[in-house]
Every structure is written in structure tokens, then in C-alpha cells.
DNA sequence: TCATTTTTGATTGACGTCTATCATTTTCAC
DNA sequence: GTGAAAATGATAGACGTCAATCAAAAATGA
């Protein structure tokens, strides 16, 4: 009935508790024969170490750091909110979450922050990956010191991190293409695309996926060269106005990056007729309002709240050296005006009283 | 630095540990004055009881029962798989999950199962709601005995359960309408609808939501009366064939219920030209195959794996009397061929070795 | 075979909470 | 002021694990 304890294992293996403990915690100085006996007994009894008891005994606190880009980015603002919400609830489970501000898209800032982190006590970090080799050494140093690393939203090289939490951006771009393609239902058209920069791996992948599907399945649609607006809304606005002035055949817009407030303002200013179909990324206050008002038609979202929670869960598992708990794949979420969650702001749950209704 | 313990609280309140304990565990026989002192101290120190330690001490095991419809339903098969996967991983956290088979859609079976549950030791149950009053008494009895109840997938009356885990089915129906409407892009058309039964609350809500959006935003589309096929694939097949024979103006199909294998077989058999746009519910092996082959175009899914995990989490919180951890709202997920998760089967993670790659 | 090293056993005190017991003090009614 | 009831204090063992110590036994090498 009750789960077996390490004492049970020791007894079954015919060794003392001390020896069994030496095996499970690999403290060394154990004969191979004993190791095998203990492992066999664990197998036979189905022993699983009681993590709660272990943590209690250790006085273990999971110290996690999230390095997030600072600035006006609404997506990361949502993720911050989700994290502080999580932090409040997880303090009861010995999880300490610290958010470190990083200059956005800055290799230098990230490198400095990684070096600065006071390692004693830190168990794991989550960082938003940047392509390029400059992070390799600091990350390796950190991991040598036993810190687990997950990449968040944008991946690192597979050998630089222990896990990736984020969506498949190629799939996201393909999805956008599918939606726009189907909504043209056979008509010809031209799609204006926008991106932050072609240095950002996620943006490139989205554009590639988009192109693949359009070419293969919707050849009657042409793709215009992307406006590169550095995720800056003013630049997005200017680019949109310019392109729409130069081309009155645009039937759709796909922005793989941020700066959607500029996009919305431009659509309102230009008021092209007929209105183009619009797909953008990330459900935040402004994009949500535009979706509800009908200015844009689809939002592809990666649910920062879920990603934050998952990053914490995976870091805990990594730190414990456990196997990963079952984690359904993160999938690019499609929003239309009808399947929007009730609240965009994940922090609407009252952290302090916890008085939020239990049914969501 | 360290979180305060109950001893710290007692000290700060100027009472003994025993008295502080009497307060936090409401054992009675405490003067109001002392209660206030202890509560003030808890507030001041920010005391949060260490649940792990408490559970360890109590020898607490969370005993949960999931009452799921038996039968060939692929959606619930996925949920079962997710649950056993969860169970394997959560045994380390003192969670014991038991799956109880229920005859599908049977008030009687559900009532009998509720009465039969051996209450001693049971802490919480999850059941798939059925409309009608016959469950009221057994549920009330169960909850009187301290068992927490969550409704899963299909809701109960709000006063019959502690929480609901599932999607908003009205929103799901509206979403289907939006997708089909946009994919017609102005053309007229007729939508064939299918449902299991008009006794199932979720099916009704989906149809209602669908109708609302079509009427409001896509008035050039007409909705045909639903085929009621009891989620039986043979009945779905027959109904489809009959309707398509009678009406060659059908441009789209929306099935709010199960039995999609019959739908796919019918489409292959009839091969209407042009092929109708198809929206169905729940991503399972067959619907996935049909989506990938282009026979159907959208799947609206409620991610049984996530729902299972969430039901467990919420039950644990309810049982602990904790506040609900932050839970992003469950949203009807839209799948196109391009944003499908890598594996439909959540059990592909090897439970025993845990050797699944950590990046999903 | 003896000295040395390696391996094992036995035990102990945390960690923070729960539950229980028993003795003591305070409060209250009369 | 007395007696009963209510409230409080003090303490101890348990939960399963970790981390450490010390003594005893077994294996190893010369």
C-alpha cells in the first residue's frame, strides 16, 4: 500500500540503510556488488525517493533566475507578470524566482549578466537565446558549476542548454500561411510581411515557414519583401504607410515580430479598402483590442504564462535530476475573436488573497 | 532569508508552539485573544505552512478518482493515457490516481459509481458532467464527507462542484463558425452540422455559439439541421451520405461531437466536388490523419493531457485548502496541418526510463 | 600474516509539521 | 473564594531523507 522507503530497500537488499544511502546519493566507497544489490532491490520494490522529504531534509531551496529583456515589450511584460504570480505561489514549495533585467537583443548585456550572477546557491537559469557564439563560454562555465540552463522563447544551440521551452517557430510561420491562404479561398493576392530583424532566429524561421506553405499550397499569393522594423512601432507605422502607398494590391499582412501598435495605427490611418487580412504574433493588450475590433484577424500566440510555468517545472526536474514530467508539446496557439481567454492579464488573479474563483 | 516556521510565529506571537499549532490547525480551545495574536504574527512574518513537511508528517496521500466514460472514444482514451502517465510521475509526490470506468453518457452508471466509491481515504474526484438533477444528491453526500469535486470537460451546476476544468464550449462553437466563415471569404454556402445528442450540454453550446457567429457575421451562410448521430461513427457515416445525396450545395461540415472516423469515411466515399470545408473537434489519431491528408481543414481541440494535469493540480490545491495556483484559462485550441504537435500520443514519453528528450 | 585500505553497519540530529499527552495556569460562574 | 471549565505550555515521537560520525568488518597488498 504505502510506497517503499529507503529503509525497505536496504532491508530487501540485505544491506544497511547507510549503504543504501551511499548508493542512491552516490557518495562513493561502495562495492560494485552492493550497488547491484541495492539497485535490484529498488527495481523490485519500485522505490521512488520522496522528493518532499529529501528537500525538507536538505533545506533545499530552488533558486532560479530568469534573464528577461527589459523595455516596453508587452510579451515579456506578460511573462514577467506570470513569473511573479508563480513566484508568489511557489514560495510555499521552496522555489525562489529572481528576474534579472537584460538589455533587449544585446549579446553584451546577456554575457555580462551571466558572468555577474552570483553562483553560490543558484540552481538554474532561464534565458532568451540569442544566436551567435559569444554566449558559449559563460554558459559552459555556469553549467560546470552545476547550474541548469533552459532556453526560453528563442533557442540556443542544443549543446549549450539542458532544455528548450518555446514553440516551433517554423510551424508558427507555416500556420500563419495556412490561415491567410485559406482565407483567400482561391483568390489571388499579395502579402506584406514585417519582421524585427533577420538576425533573430525566431523571426527568420517564421518567415521561412510562411514562405514554404505559401509557395507549396497557395501559389496564387505573392509575398512582398519584409519590412524590417526592429520591433519598433514607429518604424512599423512608417513602413506600412509607405508600402501601402506604393502598392494597392496588398490583400494581407503578416508581422512575425513585435510593434503591432504601429501596425494597427497604420491600418487605421490608411484604411485600405478592402481591408487586408492580418495575422500577427503574441496576444497582448493592443493586439487583442485590434482582433476584437476586426482590424486584425488572427493572432498566433505562444502563451508566456504557460511557458513560464513550464520553465520552472523543467528547471525543478533538472535540478532534482529527475526525469521530465509529462509535458505536452508547446504549440503555436491560434486566436480568433471568439476563443480569446477572459483576461489577457495573467496577474488578474489576486496573488495575496488568492481569492480568484477556482473555476476559470 | 529562510522562510519563517511555525515556531518563529509562536515566538513572535508570544505564545507556545502548541497554541500556534492549535490556531493554524483550528483544533479549538483557544482564546480569541491568542488567535488574533497568532494571526497577526503570521501576517507580519509572512508565514506559509510548508506543505511538503505537513504532508510528510501526516503521511498524507492524495487519493484521487477520475470517473471516465469507457468505450471506444478516442478523446477519453487520450485522457486516460495522459492520466496514467501523470500517475506514474506523481507517485513520487504522494498522489494516487485511480481511473474508474463509467458507461458513457449514463446518468445511472455515474450515480451508481458515485455511490459505490469507497469514501474512506478518498480525497477528490473528477467527473465528466451530465446535465440533469439526478447527480445532485450523491455529489452532495460525497462533498459532505470532505471529498473535493471537479467537473471535467463538461460542467456540472456551479453549486454541485468545486471547480470546472474544461473549455468554454460556446467559444468553441463560435470559433468554428469564425474559421468556416472566413474561409468562405464572402461566398455563399451551406453548412452541414453534426452532433452526438441534444442532451449533452457541451454539444448544445457548441451549436449555439456556431449559430450566433454565422448569423451575425456570415449571413450568406446557411446552417442545415444537425445530424444527431450519438457519437457513433456508423451513424455519422450514414447521415453524411444521406445528406450529401439530398443536397449538393453543401460547402462546409461542422461536427461538434465524436465519430469522426465515420465522417472521414463518408467524405472519401462521396468525394464531393468541390470538397467541403471541414471543422471537427478533438485531435486524435483519425482526425489528425484526415487533417494532414487535407480531408478536414481545422480541428478544435481541448488538449486532454493538459486538462488531466490541471484537474490533478486543482484537486490538490482544493484538498490542501490552498488558493488556486495561477492557471491560465483553458482555450479551445485550433489546429491546422502546420501547428500539430509532434506526437498525438501523450504516452510516447517513456514512463519507466524517463528517457524522453527534455526539449519537446 | 600483518598492516593498510576499502567497505559496511549502526546511529544520530537535523528539516518543519502533525498529533497526542500531561501538567499547569487562567478564567469564569456561583 | 472555591470548584469546574477553559486555555496554555512543554514535550515527545513520527514522517522519509540527508549528512555526518565512529566503530567494526572485509578485502587487499607486500
TrEMBL record, chains A, B:
SMART domains, alphabetized: HTH_LACI (SM00354)
Gene3D superfamilies the UniProt entry points to: 3.40.50.2300, lambda repressor-like DNA-binding domains
Keywords tagged on the record: DNA-binding, Transcription, Transcription regulation
Domain HTH lacI-type residues, every copy: 4-58
Signal peptide, first to last residue: none
Pfam families in the record: LacI, Peripla_BP_4
Protein known as: LacI family DNA-binding transcriptional regulator
Annotated source species: Aliishimia ponticola
